[in-house]
Specification:
244 residues; alpha/beta; Rossmann fold; 6-stranded mixed β-sheet; 34% helix; 26% strand
Length: 244
């Protein structure tokens, strides 16, 4: 695939929960290797959008294609292309860090997961705690392990829904340094992984974004290249579209 090929292609996407409409005809195209950051107020539809992209929720209308596959007919195939980090870490407290990754390695039928597990624990700064139970980890450590879990099968698409929720400033800074590396914005990675991140932090979002959108009332109301954009420039735009 080239950089011009769409990894994610949404057409007229809608989602309703009874009489409540969460997404209203969203059209969105994310190219291979692009890091897209989604901003928006509470209730804008951001988490609903991530859940649909994660194949955890089905749209009411419209189409979703990821990696060229249609969500309606190839949900299982799509899941193999995805790594997801959300509010729930999807880890087992009674297992160690390495046991958690080993378990998910079996789920993804990885033929030889041990080198990958070692490399990822080193990458997220948990190599020294690989044998410790997850229940002993801080919130920041759990979230870093969740990222290792999401990356274990080397997914083409990484979806992150408020990955820094509940983290202290130091842990959040470490997390976003890792995301900057994964997105290629740190200059330390040439990986062409496609990343979609939902965040409330304008500064941290812009630090990892190639492109930003603002979602409000279930619609994309702003869509722009983020290269060179500063928080001081973006805040008035955000306020204009959704209010301060």
């Amino acid at each position: 695939m080239t950089a011009e090929v769409a990894m994610i292609d949404l057409r007229k996407l809608t989602k309703a929960f009874g009489s409540k409409v969460a997404l209203r005809g969203v059209d969105l195209r994310v190219t291979v290797g692009e890091s897209l950051v989604i901003f928006g107020p509470n209730g804008a539809g951001k988490t609903t959008l991530i859940r649909i992209l994660s194949s955890l929720s089905r749209p009411t209308g419209g189409s979703v294609r990821i990696g060229g596959l249609d969500l309606r007919t190839h949900a299982d195939g799509i899941r193999r292309h995805l790594g997801v980090v959300s509010h729930a870490p999807l880890l087992y407290d009674s297992l160690t860090a390495e046991e958690n990754l080993r378990f998910f390695g079996r789920l993804y039928s990885l033929p030889d997961p041990e080198p990958r597990i070692t490399a990822l624990l080193e990458r997220v700064g948990l190599a020294g705690r690989r044998g410790d139970l997850v229940r002993t980890f801080s919130r920041g450590m759990v979230q870093r392990l969740a990222i290792a879990r999401a990356l274990l099968h080397d997914p083409a698409v990484l979806l992150l829904d408020e990955p820094d929720t509940g983290l202290d400033p130091q842990a959040a800074e470490m997390l976003h340094g890792l995301l900057a590396e994964l997105s290629g914005r740190s200059g330390e990675s040439a990986n062409q992984r496609t990343i979609v991140t939902v965040t409330h932090s304008i500064e941290r979002g812009l630090a990892i974004a190639d492109r930003v959108i603002i979602l409000a009332n279930g619609r994309i109301v702003f869509d722009a290249d983020a290269q060179g954009m500063t928080a001081a420039e973006f805040r008035p735009l955000y306020d204009r579209y959704v209010g301060s």
